[in-house]
Design brief:
Layout: E1 11-12, H1 13-20, H2 24-33, E2 40-41, E3 47-49, H3 51-66, H4 71-81, H5 83-87, H6 107-131
């Protein structure tokens, strides 16, 4: 069970397996059957599941285990509905939304940021002209 991790935290394959009640080798197998499951991989192949990855795997597990779909059946559902519809409103949410504090900028910091944005726009415009 994952303890003291925010909902936006990335999870290891062991944490996801424990949370969903499946073995780690099952998650690795599902990655081969469902190309939509794409955890980040670090050096050495260590997997880190984003919140959307965990939600996708949870929905796949529910169809396979609770509703008794076959792997081919789940693949068909995802293909027919599309990933966004399959995931519903959960996919692509800004999962940091609850953890991000509002930042108050001083007038000086705001001025520096606006100046930097202006400079970056000028650089962008100059690069665009150079490429034409």
């Amino acid at each position: 069970m994952v303890i003291n991790k925010s909902k936006s935290a990335f999870r290891t394959i062991a944490e996801v397996a424990d949370e969903l009640g499946v073995a780690t080798h099952v998650l690795r197998f599902w990655e081969t059957k469902f190309p939509q499951i794409k955890p980040m991989k670090r050096a050495g192949g260590r997997r880190y599941y984003r919140p959307d990855d965990v939600e996708l795997v949870r929905k796949i597990r529910d169809l396979l285990y609770d509703k008794r779909y076959t792997i081919e059946g789940v693949q068909k559902v995802i293909k027919e509905k599309g990933l966004k519809a399959f995931m519903g409103e959960e996919i692509m949410k800004d999962f940091f939304e609850d953890d991000t504090p509002e930042v108050e900028l001083s007038a000086q910091a705001r001025e520096i940021l606006l100046s930097t944005v202006k400079e970056l726009k000028e650089i962008h415009d100059n690069l665009q002209k150079a490429l034409m």
